Amino acid sequence: MSEKILNQILVEIKEIKTDISTLKTDVSNLKEDVSTLKVEQQKTTTHMAKMDERLSNLESKQNSIHKQTGKLLEYHSETISHFETLATKEDLEYFDKKISEHEREIFKIKNA
């Protein structure tokens, strides 16, 4: 009986060794996967840093555009207000007629 038990123990030990070998292989594969994930995570971190920098640049440019647009709007408003104070075509026609009338009257007065 003791030989039978020893054989059974030997079979069990061989199975355990096989299981341990399989576990070692699995652990090795997991280590490789973790290493690959770390590399990918580093790449992602680098990419995110570049994106943050680009976003900061875009925000800076957007602020510049906003300021310039404000200045242009102010200039446009000033220009429009100056146009509003200028004489219109109708005003110029009126002045032309009035000046002509006054010139005629002055001519009549001088020649009378």
UniProtKB/TrEMBL annotation:
Entries under Gene3D superfamilies matching the protein? 1.20.5.190
The answer to keyword Coiled coil applying to this record is yes
Keywords noted in UniProt = Coiled coil
Q: Could you list the residue ranges forming a coiled coil in this record?
A: 13-40
Q: What name goes with this protein?
A: Uncharacterized protein
Tell me the organism.
Lederbergia ruris
